[in-house]
Amino acid sequence: WATRNPFGLFVGPLGSFRHRRARRTPAFHTHQKRDPHRRQQEPQRLSALYQYHNAPEVAPAHGLEYDDHVYPHSDKFPAFTDTPAYDPTNYKGKHAFPNDNRPPRIIFGMKIRTFLLVSAVMLCVVVGAAVGGAVGGQSVRNNGLSMSGASSGASNETATSTAAATSTPAYAAATPTFAPSSGCANDTLFTSSYATGLTGPAAAGLNFTALCDVTNPLASAKANNLTEVYVYAFQDCIETCASYNYLHADRNCTVAVYQAAGSRPANCYVGSLTGVTANQLGTHPGIDVALLASS
Predict the structure, then answer these.
(1) pLDDT per residue over 135-156, tens digit each?
(2) Would you say which domain of life the source belongs to (predicted)?
(3) Does pTM top 0.70 for this prediction?
(4) Distance of CA 277 to the CA centre of its chain
(5) Which end of the chain is more exposed for a tag (fewer CB within 10 A), N or C?
(6) How confident is the model at residue 214, as a pLDDT?
């Protein structure tokens, strides 16, 4: 005999045909134990949506039920809420949300606002120091220029009142504004400054007789030229010859010849010539001669 169960299956003494096929599956033999005295309980389907169809299906069993119930948050259907995903009222600025608990940005251990404030103060200090230094340096330079101008004016006045000198290049010797002069007193005795405090033989080579506008005795072939210099007075030329005798403690320099109109490098010539006297010299304008006086 066979009866139809509520699911439309014929059930006999040993269960339905489909159930008998499922019992022959080894998986159900290992996990289920049947009680021969108890009628096998047929698993219940949760929904009857797919009750009638002709496609292959797995035999119903406990743990293999198909649940086609729709839950509110099932992945088969999207969940809708009353609150929109974007609420313009919640937007209050860049990266601003209702409950923004993110930590503030830190730069060099300070918040952004503090860092900007400190940077602005430091920038003001640096700019102020630079401007103050520039103004102070300009003031110092102006003071220095004014002081140097005043000192140069005073020095110019002093130089003008004492002596006049023309500016020359650094590599050239300074040229005096006054020209050499003769200042010769004819046939007079000239005593050198080296003779001060000296008497006797020590002062013998320091006295000279000045002769004006005479010929040059050192032009003789017998003369011996010792040295030549450039001086501005006849007396300086005589002192040159006297200093030679004073330093060598002798009477080797006997003649000093001075030409006031002579040009550089020399206008004074000193040397030795024995036996020369004033009577032996001729006349020559512009040449002054000093002969060593006899003791």
Answers:
(1) 888 887 777 666 665 555 555 5
(2) Eukaryota
(3) no
(4) 79
(5) N
(6) 93
Beta bridge partners of 188: 210
Per the structure, how many domains does the chain have?
2
Cis-peptide, bond into residue 265, ω within 30° of zero: yes
Looking at residue 154, its pLDDT comes to: 53
Instruction: Give the residue carrying structure tokens 């198909």.
Output: 66
Q: Which amino acid is at 56?
A: P
What is the span of the domain harbouring residue 251?
188-292
- Burial class of residue 171, CB neighbours in 10 A (0-12, 13-18, 19+): exposed
Look up the CATH number of the domain holding residue 265.
Answer: 3.50.4.10
Measured between its terminal Cα atoms, the distance across the chain in Å is 191
Positions of the chain with pLDDT lower than 70, given as ranges: 1-102, 144-178, 197, 199-203, 295
Q: Is residue 140 part of a domain?
A: no
Alpha carbon of 61 to those of 20, 58, 192, 268: distances in Å?
12, 9, 156, 150
Among 94, 128, 152, the domain boundary falls at 94
Helix ranges (H only) for the chain are: 17-23, 26-31, 112-162, 234-248
Could you tell me if residue 186 is left (phi over 0), alpha (psi between -120 and 50 degrees) or otherwise beta? beta
Cα angle for residues 154, 156, 160 (degrees, 5° grid): 120
User: What does the alpha-carbon distance between residue 131 and residue 115 come to, in Å, rounded to a whole number?
Assistant: 24
Whole-number pLDDT of residue 112: 84
Residue 154 resides in a domain: no
- Which residues contact residue 207 at a Cβ distance below 8 angstroms, ignoring those fewer than 6 apart? 189, 190, 191, 192, 195, 292, 293
**Cα separations in angstroms, 147 against 139, 144, 160, 182:** 12, 5, 20, 44
What's the confidence (pLDDT) of residue 231? 93
Alpha carbon distance 192, 174 (integer Å): 28
Give the Cα separation of 209 and 292 in Å (integer).
6
